[in-house]
Write a structure and sequence with these properties.
- This protein starts with 10 loop residues before the first helix and ends in a 14-residue tail after the last helix.
- By secondary structure, the chain is an all-alpha fold.
- Among the domains are: 59 residues, no CATH class; 84 residues, Annexin V, domain 1, CATH 1.10.220; 84 residues, Flagellar motor switch protein FliG, alpha-alpha superhelical domain (Annexin V, domain 1).
- Helix 14 packs antiparallel against helix 15.
- It has 20 helices and no strands.
Length: 336
């Protein structure tokens, strides 16, 4: 006998719908209590929840009501109640002394500010300030953020900061207040300098791809004289593994015949199904079945191994294009 499965909704989706049901000020008040990553995730879900239908809204409300019943009655006002009991039992002075040693300390604003700052901005502050200031900042960061910050510094600076951080003891409150001023200044400067991502190797590669082939080759030749490494990087961006799908069946088959079966199987690991089918369609049924069997039996492999196999196939295609056997990318000459 079949039973209907009750519809469900994820916690993040339900929270996003509830946020959209709140007034703007109420929603903003909720966000202030969340961590940066929680705000990012919830914001992303809110965009997706904007078109939620009535049934999804009902599911979200139902989940909220169910979850509310599970909240412990001990949680609300626990801090106030504990302090009141301690004060009544011990008096203000003794209770205050005891609570100062056992109660959770309020978070310093410095920690909260650091959690929201971009790693690049923190790294700039650490690099510009005295090493002892940098050591304090590094010690206050989450380990993964501290590691990312140190990665942008020189090895000597990294070692010095870690040495100083390892030797840190209690830090005076005044020093933390000074850090507040430094971080506020850096944060304001960072916020005022909006950066736009323009140019770069990818954009230049797309420009060259849209030039007549002869013009593009001349430009790359001139660029190699200026910066051989940069020219090579642009060429890598001009034609990538997925672009092989643009070749006609005859050209694609010619390229793949110059590739070992093991290399092709590795290159197709994790590739789009339609792309893999097109590749295999250019081969004999027996060869295609061999590749499919290898893919089915292949254990998980490192992404860099897959990328290396794909680059090897692209290299074969480029060599064939250079010899005139096939045509890759760019605008070719006009024919009549």
């Amino acid at each position: 006998m079949e039973t209907d499965t009750a519809p469900e909704i994820g916690g993040a989706s339900a929270a996003a719908i509830l946020m959209l049901l709140l007034e703007e000020k109420e929603a903003a008040d909720v966000l202030r209590h969340l961590d940066p990553e929680e705000v990012r995730q919830l914001g992303s879900e809110m965009f997706g929840a904007a078109e939620a239908d009535e049934s999804r809204v009902d599911l979200a409300l139902g989940r909220f009501v169910t979850g509310s019943r599970e909240i412990s009655a001990l949680t609300p006002g626990a801090d106030r109640k504990i302090r009141s009991v301690m004060t009544d039992a011990l008096g203000n002075d003794r209770a205050g002394s005891l609570l100062s040693s056992i109660a959770p300390q309020p978070r310093r604003e410095t920690l909260e500010r650091l959690r929201w700052m971009a790693t690049e901005t923190i790294a700039e502050v650490v690099a510009a300030e005295h090493p002892q200031v940098g050591a304090v900042l590094v010690s206050m960061l989450a380990p993964e953020i501290a590691a990312a910050t140190l990665a942008s510094l020189s090895g000597e600076r990294q070692a010095d900061l870690l040495w100083r951080a390892a030797r840190l003891g209690p830090v005076h409150a005044e020093a933390i207040d000074d850090l507040e001023i430094i971080l506020a200044t850096a944060e304001a400067a960072s916020a005022g300098a909006e950066m736009l991502e323009i140019g770069g190797q990818g954009d230049v590669a797309r420009i060259v791809n849209n030039l007549p082939r002869a013009v593009g080759e001349e430009l790359l030749k001139a660029m190699r004289k200026k910066d051989k490494q940069l020219a090579a990087a642009i060429e890598d961006e001009m034609f990538v593994f997925e672009d092989l799908n643009q070749l006609d069946a005859k050209s694609l088959g010619a390229v793949l015949r110059g590739v070992e079966a093991a290399t092709l199987a590795l290159a197709l690991k994790g590739a789009d199904g339609a792309l893999a089918d097109r590749f295999l369609a250019t081969m004999s049924a027996r060869a295609a079945d061999t590749i499919r069997d290898e893919l089915a039996e292949m254990a998980p492999v490192k992404r860099e191994e897959v990328e290396a196999a794909r680059k090897a196939i692209v290299a074969v295609a480029r060599a064939m294009a250079a010899s005139g056997e096939i045509m890759l990318g760019g605008k070719g000459d006009d024919y009549v």
